[in-house]
Design goal:
Distance between the termini: 44 Å
Largest sheet: 5 strands, parallel
Oligomer: single chain
Shape: globular
Low-confidence stretches: none
Strand order of the largest sheet: 2-3-4-1-5
Number of helices: 8
Structural class: alpha/beta
Length: 194
């Protein structure tokens, strides 16, 4: 019972994550028809049940940095429920969706559905952000986007998450945008072409 109450009170960790840009919502919907979008979504949802909660890493590869950024924004907005929220009619519909999300958070035995809201955001790539990530406890499945991080910051972030993953009660997905040439993380990485 205490765990469920704690889960109801859990909030988005703005010290460890920067939320996606809501202004990208219209462009995000347009991205959903692309093959890279579908591949990212499949990767994100694969093995996201509490019984298989582990860190998986994907690299978005391509030469279009602006397009890759928009695709990462789109995936975040879809995963965190922002697009569902925008589709709601009126304040009552938005409140009902938020309450449903909190109810799902408080019932960990419930099988996760693809439509369930996750937490999603961009890693700040700063020393303070890395320290916040060291304390990060996901309240629900979480998509982390590492965009434009230096190679040392990216290595430190990946090593930190990899070492802590067994303590997480939810799936964690780390998307690297763009690919860092020659980066070897020492564990499997899904490569998705954009």
């Amino acid at each position: 019972m205490l765990g469920a109450l704690r889960q109801l009170g859990a909030r988005y960790d703005r010290a460890a994550l920067q939320p996606p840009e809501p202004s990208c919502a219209t462009q995000a919907v347009a991205m959903q028809g692309r093959a890279a979008w579908r591949a990212l979504r499949v990767w994100c949802l694969a093995g996201s049940s509490p019984l298989s909660a582990r860190l998986t890493v994907a690299v978005l590869e391509g030469s279009d940095a602006a397009g890759a950024h928009l695709l990462a924004q789109a995936l975040c907005l879809e995963r965190d429920g922002s697009l569902q929220l925008l589709a709601c009619h009126g304040a009552a519909g938005r409140l009902a969706l938020r309450l449903k999300t909190k109810l799902h958070d408080a019932t960990p035995w419930r099988e996760r559905q693809p439509s369930d809201a996750w937490d999603a955001g961009f890693l700040p790539g700063t020393t303070a952000g890395l320290q916040a990530l060291a304390r990060f406890e996901p309240r629900r499945p979480t998509l982390l986007v590492a965009q434009g991080l230096s190679t040392p910051a990216l290595r430190a972030t990946c090593a930190l998450l990899h070492s802590r993953q067994r303590h997480f009660g939810h799936a964690l997905r780390l998307l690297l945008v763009p690919a860092t040439p020659g980066l070897n993380l020492g564990w499997p990485v899904t490569r998705i072409a954009f």
